[in-house]
Design a protein that fits this description.
The complex is a heterodimer of chains A (287) and B (456). Chain A has helices spanning 6-37, 54-61, 63-94, 101-108, 110-113, 116-127, 133-141, 152-180, 184-192, 197-225, 229-234, 246-256, 260-285; strands at residues 39-40, 49-50. By secondary structure, chain A is mainly α. In chain A, strand 1 (39-40) and strand 2 (49-50) form a beta hairpin. In chain B, helix 21 runs antiparallel to helix 22 (434-451). Chain B is an alpha/beta fold. Chain B is built from 22 helices and nine strands. Chain B folds into two domains: 2-147 and 332-401, D-Maltodextrin-Binding Protein, domain 2, CATH 3.40.190; 158-330 and 405-451, D-Maltodextrin-Binding Protein, domain 2 (3-Layer(aba) Sandwich), CATH 3.40.190.10. Classes of the chains: A mainly alpha (287), B alpha/beta (456). Chain A binds chain B through residues 42-46, 63, 128-131, 145-152, 155, 235-242, 244, 252, 255-258, and chain B through 76-77, 80, 83-84, 103-104, 107, 109, 204-208, 268-274, 281-282, 285, 287, 412, 415-416, 419, 423-424, 426-432, 437, 440, 452.
């Protein structure tokens, strides 16, 4: 007869506190959000009624949602790609031994410790057409006299640039840690076999970094998809709604239009998008 | 040693009633922005001090006074969440006359103040001293209960650089046609002379901000608040006449287009993302000749500027008249109301009457140097006359006299309208087609009003 260990007997009891905490901190707000998304509920108005899927229909059919979704897609793809490519390139360079490497590594991580809201204000100031170091001094020297944050296309480019600046250090750290975990023997063997950098990159580094890269992409995707602070402080979603991503639309719907039902519906839609893409990525990289 | 312990015990016992007394005093908590220049006599120039004056006031009223500061948008969000949750955490809240009063007053979240004014008059606050329009702007619906008292407040106007005007032989424009002529001459002159200045600065960042000024243009062009059919501004009027939004009508479009065209042609690049802070900074840096129609931002610029020419040559003029003969508007009051869920309403009223009373407003005028005050007696105080001259102060009073607080609707949906109109303005200034923007705005407005049940 198989003996039941103490762990086997009590494992559910051990889990109870965690489950309770999760239930309180995660499940309740989630369930409440689902419930709110089915309500016609304008804050500060006494009447509140069941709306069924009405809020979802309103959200999905609105032109502002479609425009914000498109902006979000452009923002997420550009920002994720930019920070991953840049972070990877930096990790490759700074994985090599050279004088001053540790100082550069430390300097590169500075943006990661600056709060995104502060970074947004800093970039806004730097890009200012009249007094900014970049927008008011360097760009005019190059013949660019436009106000970047006042032009719909350039404003989106600017917030992507700022976000890449903020997030690249984290990607750099994750990928550097991944690179350092690859056994040096593999590089030595490749060198003896006469492999060039390109072959080492494609045949050794990328295959062995696949999971770390996958993890980095998932983390970055979630961060980029929920970015609020940098955009809010730099452009407030403008000009017009040119840089308005879904989180900004959600904030506006909830805190400016007081439409809590629609804001909750939008949050549920965003959650579904995040879960879908994250789980697809998890499956792709077999995490 | 024992004697010392005994003495300490006696002292502590004697102090107990005092602590009990302090603890029994109600605490009135204020939520506001403008840290550092609002109520400097109570909270110092940092907003974090507890001055002797504050202690004196607390003792006199028998209350403890606390203040919570935040930037404007944070304060607005805090007010909203606190009011919805009915916590009563903030006894006195900052609510603007551009949405807060209408929304919270109508929803029953603010305490009507007429009863307190009548039954608990306080020596600091005499409603007769306040320009009636600044009080009226805080009634919801118009003519209805008073929900907030004004602190600093303003009517429309133009702050301009007299030296630059003189250089090009210009005088302040009295009509919008003259305004366009002046702007064109300024543009040509500045370009010719290689002066790094823009003819004008106004705001067009997405959100509610530009609506305050832009709707003032709409009013001056149409001659009435052309947001709903027939110029309806109250819930009753809209419901009774089933007045639909007219945001893509000719009447609305004329003023909207003028605002957008001015910024496109004569404003700074990037104005589509400019808030009042950007306007103020540009003018303070000596980079704009005119700032309008929210002249208060010009006064703020004059106060902070390090450019001696801005300080020396800035003047105030009335906002130009539109084709209708009515002047461009920009009217706002920084108002304070009492939370209907406050547990200390009477104490809050006493504090509020000080916060919006003559002494506090005089302290504000002295701290900031802005003539944007709701009381005539403060407007004509020696401090402001010395700073700007009697003629300029009289012009400021005239701008209040000719102000029309109801140039936008007084409905609970006002915050949504302000945000959507402001964002449409930002899109148009950034280059989008005006007709397309206004058609989309109109569709949204119709949907919003139908959903709110106005046309049942």
């Amino acid at each position: 007869m198989r003996k039941t260990s103490l762990w086997e007997k009590d494992k559910y009891r051990f889990l109870i506190p965690t489950v309770l905490v999760c239930a309180l901190l995660v499940s309740f707000p989630f369930v409440y959000m689902l419930y709110t998304s089915t309500q016609y509920w304008i804050a500060l108005r006494p009447e509140r009624s069941f709306a069924g899927l009405g809020n979802y229909r309103s959200v999905l059919l609105s032109t502002e949602f479609r425009q914000s979704l498109l902006t979000t897609v452009i923002f997420v793809i550009s920002s994720v790609a930019g920070s991953i490519v840049l972070g990877f390139a930096l990790a490759l360079v700074l994985n090599e031994k050279f004088r001053g490497r540790n100082v550069i590594r430390a300097l590169l991580t500075i943006p990661a410790i600056i709060p995104p809201a502060a970074a947004g204000f800093t970039w806004k100031f730097l890009l200012n057409r009249d007094v900014g170091l970049i927008g008011g001094f360097f760009l005019p020297l190059l013949g660019v006299k436009r106000a970047l944050l006042g032009d719909p296309g350039w404003a989106l480019f600017s917030v992507i640039l700022a976000d890449v600046w903020c997030q690249t250090p984290l990607m750099f750290l994750i990928l550097l840690a991944g690179l350092q975990a690859i056994p040096m023997e593999l590089f030595d063997a490749a060198r003896i076999d006469g492999a060039g950098f390109g072959q080492v990159l494609v045949r050794i580094i990328i295959p062995l970094l696949k999971r770390v890269l996958g993890l980095a992409v998932i983390i970055r995707f979630i961060f980029a998809f929920t970015t609020f602070d940098v955009i809010f402080t730099m452009t407030g979603g403008g000009p017009g709604i040119a840089t308005q991503t879904l989180p900004l639309l959600g904030w506006k719907t909830g805190f400016l239009y007081y439409d809590l039902g629609q804001a909750a519906a939008l949050a549920v839609v965003m959650l579904l998008i995040t879960v879908f893409f994250s789980s697809t990525l998890v499956r792709m990289v077999k995490l | 040693m024992r004697l010392r312990r005994f003495a300490m015990l006696v002292v502590l016992v004697l102090m107990l009633p005092l602590t009990g007394f302090a603890a029994s005093r109600p605490t009135v908590t204020i939520l506001a922005f403008a840290q550092g220049f609002a109520w400097p006599e109570l909270f110092g120039s940092t907003g974090l001090e507890r001055t002797e004056k504050l202690a004196e006031l607390e003792d006199r009223l028998g209350v403890n006074i606390e203040i919570v500061w935040g930037d404007e948008s944070t304060v607005r969000m805090k007010a909203l969440t606190d009011l919805i949750a009915h916590t009563g955490r903030y006894d006195i809240l900052m609510v603007g006359s551009d949405g807060g009063v209408q929304l919270y007053g109508w929803g029953g979240y603010l305490e009507p103040l007429d009863y307190y004014l009548e039954n608990y008059p306080m020596e600091w606050f005499d409603p007769k001293e306040v320009f009636p329009k600044f009080l009226d702007a805080n009634r919801m619906p118009p003519g209805g209960p008073l929900y907030a008292l004004p602190y600093y407040s303003f009517g429309a106007g133009m702050i301009y650089r007299a030296d630059i005007f003189e250089r090009y032989g210009l005088t302040p424009p009295d009509t919008v046609d003259e305004l366009f002529t002046v702007l064109q001459k300024l543009k040509e002159g500045l370009e010719k002379d290689g002066l790094d200045m823009y003819p004008i600065t106004m705001r067009a960042a997405p959100g509610e901000e530009p609506s305050l000024d832009l709707l003032g243009f709409v009013y001056a062009y149409a001659g009435y608040p052309a947001i709903f059919e027939g110029g309806a501004v109250t819930i009753e009027e809209i419901k009774k006449t089933k007045a639909k939004p007219i945001l893509n009508s000719e009447d609305f479009k004329k003023g909207f287009t003028a605002y957008v065209e001015i910024l496109r042609e004569y404003g700074p690049p990037g104005a589509s993302n400019h808030t009042w802070v950007d306007m103020m900074n540009l003018y303070a840096a000596g980079k704009a000749v005119i700032l309008m129609p929210s002249a208060i931002n010009g006064y703020a610029a004059i106060t902070i500027t390090e450019d001696p020419a801005v300080k020396k040559y800035s003047r105030f003029a009335l906002a130009p008249k539109g084709p209708s003969g009515k002047r461009i508007q920009s009217f706002w009051t920084f108002s304070l109301g009492i939370n209907a869920d406050s547990k200390h309403k009477l104490a809050a009223w006493k504090v509020l009457s000080y916060l919006c009373g003559r002494e506090a407003i005089q302290a504000f005028a002295e701290r900031t140097g802005w003539p944007n005050v709701p009381m005539r007696s403060v407007l004509y105080s020696q401090n402001l006359i010395d700073r700007y001259g009697l003629e300029q102060i009289e012009l400021n009073e005239e701008s209040i006299d000719i102000a029309e607080p109801y140039y936008f609707p007084y409905i609970p949906e006002l915050p949504d309208f302000m945000d959507k109109i402001g964002t449409a303005c930002s899109r148009a200034v950034a280059g989008e087609d005006i007709d397309k923007v206004l058609d989309e705005l109109q569709l949204w407005a119709l949907d919003r009003m139908f959903k709110a049940g106005y046309y049942r």
